[in-house]
Design brief:
This protein has helices at about 1-15, 25-60, 90-100, 115-125, 140-155, 155-165, 170-180. By secondary structure, it is mainly α.
Length: about 200
């Protein structure tokens, strides 16, 4: 490689230093000179490119990477913008619908029993006189969901009962719990009798 470079330099130097004389050449000599000049130029260009690549490779090998020199900036941990992976269940939807109906805000009915739903469950438990644990017992869940279904199926009778109860819709829960305690055979209505007393139907 070095010899090719030296030959190229020698040729270029001889062209500069040798006195110019009038040369006469025919077309064959001209074409041969052009071909030789093109080949010599291509070799020189190739060597120059290789030298630049070698030099860049040497610089990469010699220059150490300075990671420590770069200032580190503090990044606060990203806030979670996703919901926790709580499975949505039909039972969860039923509980949420029941809680929302009776005025205990369980949030959207999505079937995922999360923090808001557990808070609503605890409110329901405290209203009914139970410990506000946020986790329903079998009986508490049964009372809640069957009361909801019964109130929904009751139609105008349910509306009349709600109007007469001091706690409104929530009062239905205590009313239906009393009916369950009495054996469930009776389903009372709080429709006032003409004399103003309540009757059991």
């Amino acid at each position: 490689m070095l010899s090719k470079t030296l030959i190229s330099v020698a040729l270029a130097t001889s062209l500069v230093l040798v006195p110019t004389t009038r040369a006469t050449a025919d077309s064959k000599d001209f074409i041969a000179g052009a071909v030789l000049g093109g080949v010599a130029g291509a070799i020189i260009n190739k060597e120059v490119r290789k030298n630049k690549e070698r030099q860049a490779a040497r610089q990469r090998a010699v220059t150490p990477r300075t990671y420590a020199a770069q200032p580190r900036t503090y990044r606060a941990p990203a806030k979670k913008t996703y919901r926790p992976s709580i499975p949505a269940t039909p039972e969860g939807r039923e509980i949420q619908s029941s809680l929302n109906y009776f005025g205990f805000d369980a949030g959207p009915v999505d079937g995922q029993v999360g923090r808001k739903t557990r808070g609503a469950i605890a409110d329901y438990q405290r209203y009914m006189g139970y410990d506000g644990t946020g986790t329903l017992t079998t009986f508490q869940q049964h009372l809640l969901t069957t009361s909801y279904l019964r109130a929904e199926a009751g139609g105008s009778r349910t509306l009349q009962d709600i109007a007469t109860l001091p706690d409104g819709t929530r009062g239905l829960l205590k009313l239906y719990r009393e009916d369950l305690a009495a054996g469930g055979a009776q389903q009372r209505s709080l429709t006032p009798a003409p004399s103003g007393a309540y009757i059991d139907l």
